[in-house]
Amino acid sequence: MKNEKGFLLAEALIVSTFVLTILIVLFIQFSNLTNNYKNSYSHNNVEAVYDLSSVANYLITNQYDLSQYISIDKPYVLVYKDGRCNMDAGVVDTFCDTFMDEMGAKTVIYTNSDVKAIQYYVNNHEDSNIGQRLREFISKIDAKPIQNKGRLFAEFKNGTFSTIAFDSDSIYGEDTTLECIPENVVTSGDGMYFDEEEDGKCVFKGANPKNYIKFNDELWRVISLESDGTIKIIRSESESSRAFDNTGNRDQSSNGAGGTYCASSTAGCNAWAINNTFNNSPLSGTVLKDASLNTYLNNTYLGTIKTNKENVISHSWNVGPIIANNDNLSNQSSSEKSIKWNGKIGMITVSEYLKANSNYNQCKTLSLNNNNTNTCIKTNWIYNTVPDSSYMWTITPNNGDNHYVYGVNKNNTKGSVNYNNASTNTASYVAPVLYLSDKTVITGGSGTRQDPYLIDIEGVQIELKEPSFTESGTNPKTVTIHFQEECKDSLTCTYQVNGGTPITVKDTQAQVTFDKSGSILATVTDGDNMVSNSYEVNVEEIDDSINVNLSTSATSNTVTIVANATSNYNITKYEYSKDGGQTWQDGGTKNTYVYNNLTSGTSYTIMVRVTNEKGVQQTATKTVKTSSLTKPTFTQSGIYPITVTITYPDGCGTNLTCSYQKDNGQTVNVTTKTVNVPFDYHGSIVATVSDGTNKLSSSYNVRIVLRAIDLSYDNTKTGLKCEDAQCALDEIKKLLD
Q1: Which of 38, 124, 255, 397 could bridge to 270 as Cys pair (CB 3.0-4.6 Å)?
Q2: 213 near 223, Cβ under 8 Å?
Q3: Omega of the bond leading into 452 within 30 degrees of 0 (cis)
């Protein structure tokens, strides 16, 4: 028993020791795993922050201007990776390599203080310089942009990460906020100025003010901060070479489709948009089509804007004409404002070009600018938007004609603002201009080309507005549904009639016609939020019956039918029958019908069936008989020769064909009611009359009988024994011979 107990005890000790060993090993492995996990995701520990601060001090001390290498396409600079500093960014001394290696750095990048740009980049691009784990770290950082700061991100060899913002004034210069406030306004040099004509508005002037802004993943520039809170921007590079208005788009060659103002121009028309009374003294008239460039920018080009599209709004634009080479900017601006257009994409006005010049004394008017072009091009940033040896359109037409449009020249007299034919499309470039919503949020940037202002990538939250309704007419009624402007592109807008299938609308209006009472439900949604509005339509019932007054007239072979129908609804079809409704002929919307080739003297049961737009039908019946065709008749007169008179029915030569044959000879056509046919010997005659369908003939035989006394001879003297004329003639001839 002791031995057995001793064995069991030893066995228990062995098993316990084995289990304890396993637990110790698992604990060590779990501890290592936990530490590795913590190390893998730890960041900004004291050592890492200290090391990265040393990198920032190194860059500032050596005045490395890394900002110049930041672009929209690549919003960071690679400072260090895998043992080498970035020589392409100008970090060239060997100390950098040693310094980075000793701190255990693996990858170091420099970017803007606002992390949204780099986060957007790493979430949407594969980049071999930035590994997956560093990308994950960058995407998780929640750091607000700090004015006048750059930012470093680092991944260390031990699996930790760090990021710091640091003072980079020497790299960027002072940041400014994009606000029209006194603190940001200057009175000389490059920068933001208060507009001299409109309170609360600021414009950018000078050779190169800090007005770059990133829009649609492109560089644009701010023209002005408007008093209504909107931001007017222009693409920093011209988009394409196009005509302002294509030849034939709106002149007489387009059959008057462009309106009276444009009709006489064969070189394109200088009116920017549709206008009922476009006044360009002494010319004025209607403009029924937009300029070709307007159509392109607000359809094709607008469709290319993908990023920040919700920030673009419809706005009022000044599109009035100006006097050439004038010397009064205030009057010029007033003239531009005399005609308005509301839309999304346009171009600069001539006044906006002049106001972008900081040289007020020499360049403030059109006349001064054109007389001092060599000077003025040095202090006007918009001039640099024009491609070399080219011409860039403005939206401004010339006063007093209908075909000249102003533009900025970088050809011939560089910097002059003069006009050209609207149809010119060679080296005539377009710089699109648009307004950003007053709800646009600028999240960072200093306005330089390397560090443009950034628009909140979340975009503008569009305010949803309930659709409204207007109705016209009585029965039927037309209801017009009014949607907000954004229904054209940004929002989903639909309507339902009487609870039916939703119909999508890509416009600001839709029309529905009701011929009886019903309802409409209109809806607007941005995908997350929705507003709707309903409308009840009451249509008074109207008598839909049809009254038909049927009249007929007939000839021997035709029946003409006239059906005078009246109804409160449009008559859509007339149908006709001559056999009492067994067969029908479709007369369309014509209320007159003629049956031809009918039998004379025959009765027909005429029926007319009339249908209106409500589908209601009404039938009318009338019996009519074709007139009888009568045979020609004959009368004979005289003794020798004999005359036979043929009498025909009325209508020979008009609705009847009349003829006769004498002694089976040639047919003779007759166009009179009677005709005389002479006979000096007995014979025959056949007379015919036809209405084209029916034909009747009659015949007549002629026999001449003469006695001797009829020939003034005495039978007793002559001894003639003849009973007929021919015999007498023969005998008399013998006597005379």
Answers
A1: 397
A2: no
A3: no
